[in-house]
Design brief:
Subcellular location: Cell membrane
Helix content: over 70%
CATH topology: Rhopdopsin 7-helix transmembrane proteins
Structural class: mainly alpha
Radius of gyration: 21 Å
Organism: Rattus norvegicus
Keywords: Cell membrane, G-protein coupled receptor, Membrane, Olfaction, Receptor, Sensory transduction, Transducer, Transmembrane, Transmembrane helix
CATH class: Mainly Alpha
Strand content: under 5%
Main location: membrane
Bound molecules: 2-acetamido-2-deoxy-beta-D-glucopyranose
Membrane topology: Multi-pass membrane protein
Shape: globular
CATH superfamily: Rhodopsin 7-helix transmembrane proteins
Amino acid sequence: MIMNNQTVISQFILLGLPIPPEHQHLFYALFLAMYLTTILGNFIIIILILLDSHLHTPMYLFLSNLSFSDLCFSSVTMPKLLQNMQSQDTSISYDGCLTQMYFLLVFGDLESILLLVMAYDRYVAVCFPLHYMSIMSTKLCVCLMVLSWAFTLLYSMLHTILLAKLSFCEDNVIHHFFCDISALLKLACSDIHINELMIFIMGGLVSIIPFLLIVVSYVQIVFSILNVSSAHVLHKIFSTCGSHLSVVSLFYGTIFGLYLCPSTNSSIVKETAMAMMCTVVTPMLNPFIYSLRNRDVKDALITLLCRKKSSL
Ligand SMILES: *[C@@H]1O[C@H](CO)[C@@H](O)[C@H](O)[C@H]1NC(C)=O
């Protein structure tokens, strides 16, 4: 809690979505359905990869980490949004707000780093197919995952500590449906230069560098595809890289749409819609993109269902 001359801010008010009251129920049902789909889809992916030994390859272990991250990402915002849509009291405590912001940063950044790790995995698989197993050893995979998690946990802690140092005055209304770091900075009444600088530098590093590296690895992949003549190998490359590329486009498309669009015509509605895309739609679609385009995942699902049936 931050002490101020006149006020002590112990809670924030989340204004929520700009939805007219007569449509509240419709949107509530829609968001609930989307949230349940996200939970179910990602949960199935994690279970399939856990149970099917054919899927114990680096690519699928990374995918199950991505699904876990997606699941958590939408669980940070959606339950609170759904609860707020139902009740009159849309406040969130100061600690609750910072906690939400912290985990939002953790899972958002984890997503971008996991996509990078998965791109590297595809690059090795396509460009060095014969050495794939020795390069992507269990040791390296575990190492990459531990580093990704450790990095995002610390990185988000940095932003959260910097934010916790700020003091907040009378205005505690957040024009958003979750505790967004930029929305909180707008409410602060102490100097936020250092926060903005860190977001600019670190945020840039965390989103631009993975994106550039992903582009570089795909350029390499395209060059090595040009030398492949076997249709079977080409098909395999397209199916695994295609899923990854779709997820990457979806993720970075919404991020760039959110932050790089000209801010002159950006209304609250547009901003909210883009934030919805990031936190709800992307995590919901990822498991479908992977399972619908991918034979291995489909086979694993069929095997699992058949096994259940025969054991009954
Ligand atoms: C994440 O990846 C690591 C390393 O490949 C793996 O051991 C672990 O089971 C994965 N975690 C989840 C939740 O899928």
